[in-house]
Design a protein that fits this description.
By secondary structure, this protein is α/β, with parallel strands linked by helices. The protein has four helices and 39 strands.
Length: 337
């Protein structure tokens, strides 16, 4: 697999400065670049490597002015870092094998496009529908009647239970579980618990990313819903009937309890916990290790602590706490008088 400078420039809408037919075959960090690799400078602290870099192609900003080797072709763009997702996504798409490997189990009624890749030891159940350019890596399980949209990537070891619907351009990382039973048990008179059947499903809308070892429970009735553009880190628990709004991001080890509804553009720090049956307003910011026990109704509000409370009030309280020794000394002086 190889690309020319001109092909890359067209992809990222850049301007070639040097040899437009320069060929590269891989990506590398600028300090480790080779003549057949492409690298980029998006931060001025890496400019010190530019003059000695052996990169075949270097993506730089329009303002970049440091001399480079005559063997290095530059591609100038307005913002190098913003071009990286487009370039890497294209590379990943081209670089991945297509077709169905050996030792897979796929029933005759599965609808699967010829552009897909299915890795070895993957089990696909009956009634599954798989869109174009989908990649399912080895040792994955896809349950009955699952639907997977175009350009979605499912990494090794993912388990997708029955009736789950996954949109276009989603990414699900290794060992995630989508659609496991929600934690629903009814207490009985004798002190035991009777399991409540979890009859719903999980829906992931377009451009959702799910981190490794994250679990999203199916709804008891209806759907657990992860809306367009939401990003979930590794090791997250999403309970049954939760709704996560568009472009909401959740860091690792956080947990959201059943039937809670998160608005759009919410940001949740690592190890935060959110109780069930509450609402989190659009644009809320929940600090790491916070415990949210009641609804956040004001949009854009930041909270911290356990139980979580207003972030700005907490900062004011911390400022006052630093003054406590001084205040104590003044009180003791007054008492002596």
């Amino acid at each position: 697999m190889q690309f020319t400078a001109n092909q890359i420039a067209q992809l990222i809408q850049g301007k070639v400065e040097g040899n437009p037919d320069k060929i590269i075959r891989t990506f590398s960090k600028i300090e480790e670049a080779t003549p057949d690799s492409i690298s980029f400078i998006a931060n001025e602290k890496y400019e010190k490597y530019a003059s000695d870099s052996k990169a075949g192609i270097l993506i730089v900003s329009n303002q970049f002015s440091i001399p480079v080797s005559p063997e290095t072709t530059l591609i100038r763009v307005e913002e190098p870092y913003s071009c990286l997702p487009t370039l890497l996504a294209f590379y990943d798409k081209v670089n991945t094998n297509r077709g169905i490997e050996e030792y897979t189990s796929i029933p005759d009624d599965v609808i699967i496009d010829a552009s897909c890749y299915i890795g070895s030891f993957t089990y696909i159940s009956k009634g599954v529908k798989i869109g174009k350019d989908v990649k399912i890596f080895p040792q994955s399980y896809i349950g009955e009647n699952v639907e997977i949209g175009d350009n979605t990537i499912i990494f090794p070891g993912v388990k997708v239970y029955r009736d789950v619907k996954i949109g276009n351009n989603c990414t699900i990382h290794s060992n995630a579980v989508i659609g496991s039973d929600g934690f629903g048990f009814a207490p009985q008179a004798d002190g035991s618990f009777k399991k409540i059947p979890q009859t719903g499903n999980v829906i992931l809308e377009d451009h959702v990313e799910i981190g490794a070892n994250t679990v999203i429970d199916r709804a008891s009735i209806g759907s657990t819903l992860i809306k367009k553009g939401a990003k979930l880190d590794n090791l997250i628990q999403i309970a049954h009937n939760v709704e996560i709004g568009e472009n909401t991001v959740i860091a690792a080890q956080a947990g959201v309890s059943g039937s809670t509804k998160l608005g759009k553009n919410v940001m949740i720090g690592g190890q935060a916990g959110i109780v069930g049956h509450i609402k989190i307003a659009n644009g809320s910011k929940i600090n790491a290790q916070s415990g949210v026990s009641k609804s956040i109704e004001e949009e854009g509000k930041g909270v911290t602590g356990s139980p979580a409370h207003d972030f700005r009030e907490m900062l004011r309280a911390q400022a006052l706490m630093r003054k406590l020794p001084e205040l104590l000394a003044r009180i003791e002086a007054l008492e002596k008088k």
